[in-house]
Amino acid sequence: MTTLRPFTCDDLFKFNNINLDPLTETYGIPFYLQYLAHWPEYFIVAEAPGGELMGYIMGKAEGSVAREEWHGHVTALSVAPEFRRLGLAAKLMEMLEEISERKGGFFVDLFVRVSNQVAVNMYKRLGSTACTGRSSSITQPATENRTKTLTT
Amino acid sequence: MAARGHVQDPNDRRLRPIYDYLDNGNNKMAIQQADKLLKKHKDLHCAKVLKAIGLQRTGKQDEAFTLAQEVATLEPTDDNSLQALTILYREMHRPELVAKLYEAAVKKVPLSEEYHSHLFMAYARVGEYKKMQQAGMALYKIVPKNPYYFWSVMSLVMQAISAQDEKLAQTMFLPLAERMVEKMVKEEKIEAEAEVQLYFMILERLGKCVEALDVIRGPLGEKLTSELQSRENKCMMLYQRLQRWPECNALAHKLLLKNPDDWQFYPSYFDSLFHLIDQSWSPPEEGEHCSEGAVHHTVAEVVRFVEERIKGEDGKESRSLRGPYLARLELIHRLRERGCPEESLLGDPLELMVQFFGKFGDKPCCITDLKIYLHLLSPDQHVQFVNRLSEAVPLGERGEEGFAFPDDTKALQRHLCVCQLSRALGLHHALDVDGKLRLIAELKAHYRHGLKFGKNALKTELQFSDMYCLMAAHVYIDLWKETGDENMVWQGLGVLQEGLSHSASNAQFKLLLLLLYCHLGAFEPVVDLYSSLDAKHVQHDTIGFLLTRYAESLGQFAAASQSCNFSLRFFHSNQKDTSEYIIQAYKYGAFEKIPEFIALRNRLNQSLHFAQVRTERMLLDLFLEADIVLSLEESVKAMSLSAEEDDIPWDNMRDNRDLTVFTSWDPKERELTDEHRRQSLEEESVWLRIRSLTLRLLASLAGSGHTPSQQNSEIANENGVGDKSSILSGLLSQLNQTLQTASQIAEKRIQYPFLGPPSTRLAPALSSGSCQCQAAALQLSVHLQELDTVGLDESTELQTQICNAFKSLVVQLQEILNKCKGDLLDMKEGKLKTWPSLLENLIFFVETVCIVLWMASHCAKILRPLKTSLQKKKKKKKKDANTALPVVVCGFQELTGSLQDLLTQALEHIKGQETGITALKLASLSLDEYPQDEASFMKAAMDKVQSSYLRSLQEAGDLLKKRAETIKNLKI
């Protein structure tokens, strides 16, 4: 039982249970506003009936259309500890992939910290099972210090 | 003309090095290079602007501004200068000047799409909606592109949103916006999704739901494709507003068929059913039920639908969804609310919840799911319910201690869930002390046993059994609050420290540790705990209160300054940041986000926490530095603090605190309520008002110094003094009123849940007497002003009055100081006990002494010239042998003497405490009754508290010593 809806500014004041996780980055307000202004449909939050935020995905569209590299990018995907093991992250990924496809994206990519084994495994699992036609590629950065890292 | 189009503009080449220097932060070189260039090319305006940027960035704001205005008055039209000026004005926080710049530019180059668009954006940055509307249309006339037209439409919507007069919005701005869109619709010129979205926004705001529905369901609605289910969601919202229950019902169950886990549609589905029943709706004899298809208008149909969804989940091979199962409970809840007998069709809630637990008990969210339906059980079923659940938890053999443990993480999660539900049912709270202690032993045993499942967990992962540990701490807190036995809190701290050692990134452990240390009066350990939470940006607004509530009141001034700074830095960047993205939202056509961004900006600007840190930061700076580093007058000036100005939005204060950040499984009757939230906000506001008035009164004190030229220009000054004294008396009467409100609030002794909002300093400030003493000191300034005007000769009565006030201040200060006396930390019968309120009172004493000393210093400034002139007069009349000092001067000397005594007393007390606490041998505490590792975690917590007390004492002592130094300057 989950309500999936667009992320709004007011959610910034309620997402502590998700963001007080060591691998989830809390960005400056401008960063969120940039996504909300430019790619609002790629920013989805899951809400429980009690109003608690369960998790969210934040993404964007980028790349060259001419070179068939226009694609969706996942910037952040995070689920609060108490709402894990429900397949929520997979559901959110699925939604983002659908939106990306509607927008003509050829694939969806993301970065993940190499050390974030749980996330790496999840994406691998999703890549091999959930994504048949679509290609969901995981780009692993060479170093830990990459700024664009994805966290779950 | 624009430099961009050209391949080789010589000016570009000349300016390049300056740009590079600026980009690299080498402002000095940028200025030099610009000067060099300007010698050769006097008319290269852009070089001047770039130089101005360099000057601005090296702190020479005035020079920069003059230089920029030189160029601006020439009304430049070259791209380079315009862009550079835009950057400069933005850095100067003067966005309105950018608009002026482009207004001039479009006049000279009326057909430039680029400049018109810059002008639009410049208006957007400052929220000039009407001008935006015109600029948008002007753009559209030059280049008929749809976005420009709709920028103009959106600007009308913004005029409607920002209009004070709702009538104006409804009768003028919105209808005009609607007509503008209709025109485009008629001409079939609608192109983009954003345009339809905007049309919808306008109709919705006009309350034209029928029209909005036609748009969404019609061909225009087909453009709404970005967001998933956008059309369906909008239709649902409109059906509800229009009370079209058949459609609402039909659409809801259609969507639930598609996704039976989409929770938002269950409430709509059930609500619509009840409305249909209330209206005795029946389907038409032939044809479709409604435009959305079949309607379920009886309870039986709805029950069947929900049961079918559940069957669907039961029969699935993949993971079952929780939605349908919970929908059944939700339906029971709603039927019961209505008193519908059909509730029984769905089954017994207890059985259903047991069944739910059977299916989802191994999910961490099971507790959150079931918690909201526990009221469906009658109190006499609670124990039975828990027993039934326990039966469904597979545990191994009972061990030595009498506990049976789970064999895998799924069983662990189930067992944990039963514990959480028991707590939520109030079963933990009903236990007596021994029962609670046994419960704690069990929770700790399960916690430690469960660690074996997470042996290979990464540092960033939580342990499977962490929540047992947290719950054990909660029960310790219950015991502490119930019995007052401080050993309970030491053990609670111990178990949390132990938990943190196994699960270094558990935010809940850190938060609760932080709160407990604060309650014990120890702020030092909090600094590291909070910083390890890595709270950033907006989190400073939502959980920053945890730091700022305690840092200063517990005497850790350096940490308090730092905590305020974290928050202030965040808030100050907000204004500038948001405007940029409002502009982006126009560019990308995210129209619905524009009001949202503006609301966000307001929410942050009106934040309670923002107002608090602003005020407390200034007070803190004064306490720490005024009359020590700089004089009070200079300090007030440096803060550009003024008595007249009140920048706190009292009527629109937003409480952005996240008061549910602490995990809690407390039963409903112990949970945070809306009433608690309201009371807490009220209390915070009153305390903030006291602090803000104190600050403004100090500003007024600093601004009302003795003006020697007074007699010469009596008339001219009369107004000035009159104004000042009326402001002063206005502030004082506000302060007195607020203190009255405060004492009414304090009398209520509101108790918030332990994990809810912390109480403010208000009640202890009143009971220590510091509020009253501070107010009395500030009140004195009125009499002193009077004395300043009347002089010493004919003011015996006034002087006596002032002297009495002096005496009373000394008595009050002594009383506050008496309330600090006693041992902060003591050890009796092998037990450690803290007295944090003594520390809190000591800090109240420190703050109050500061204020009294400033008042004394102000007094000295007034008395000195009066005394001098008196002496002059006396010299003339030598015969008069009565050389006794005026009463007020004697009284003042007495005051300074007493203040000296008080400070000496306080410093001795602090010194005594420091010696006492240092000498405490925590090692000699009898912690033998605890297992060794537990004892060592408890001991570590005690060490932290001890060390923190010493630090607080030291900071308070250091400040008092500095204050004592200032008494020397009070000689007259």
Automatic annotation (TrEMBL), chain A:
GO terms for cellular component: NatB complex. Keywords: Acyltransferase, Transferase. Its EC number is 2.3.1.254. It holds the Pfam family Acetyltransf_1. The keyword Transferase applies. One of its GO terms (molecular function) is protein N-terminal-methionine acetyltransferase activity. It catalyses: N-terminal L-methionyl-L-asparaginyl-[protein] + acetyl-CoA = N-terminal N(alpha)-acetyl-L-methionyl-L-asparaginyl-[protein] + CoA + H(+); N-terminal L-methionyl-L-aspartyl-[protein] + acetyl-CoA = N-terminal N(alpha)-acetyl-L-methionyl-L-aspartyl-[protein] + CoA + H(+); N-terminal L-methionyl-L-glutaminyl-[protein] + acetyl-CoA = N-terminal N(alpha)-acetyl-L-methionyl-L-glutaminyl-[protein] + CoA + H(+); N-terminal L-methionyl-L-glutamyl-[protein] + acetyl-CoA = N-terminal N(alpha)-acetyl-L-methionyl-L-glutamyl-[protein] + CoA + H(+). Residues 2-151 form the N-acetyltransferase domain. It comes from the Eukaryota. CDD domains: NAT_SF. Gene3D superfamilies: 3.40.630.30. SUPFAM superfamilies: Acyl-CoA N-acyltransferases (Nat) (SSF55729). PROSITE patterns: GNAT (PS51186). InterPro entries: Acyl_CoA_acyltransferase, GNAT_dom, NatB_acetyltransferase_subunit. Catalytic subunit of the NatB complex which catalyzes acetylation of the N-terminal methionine residues of peptides beginning with Met-Asp, Met-Glu, Met-Asn and Met-Gln. Proteins with cell cycle functions are overrepresented in the pool of NatB substrates. Required for maintaining the structure and function of actomyosin fibers and for proper cellular migration. Belongs to the acetyltransferase family. ARD1 subfamily. Component of the N-terminal acetyltransferase B (NatB) complex which is composed of NAA20 and NAA25. This is N-alpha-acetyltransferase 20. It comes from Larimichthys crocea (Large yellow croaker). The lineage of its organism: Eukaryota, Metazoa, Chordata, Craniata, Vertebrata.
TrEMBL record, chain B:
It comes from the Eukaryota. This is Uncharacterized protein. The lineage of its organism: Eukaryota, Metazoa, Chordata, Craniata, Vertebrata.
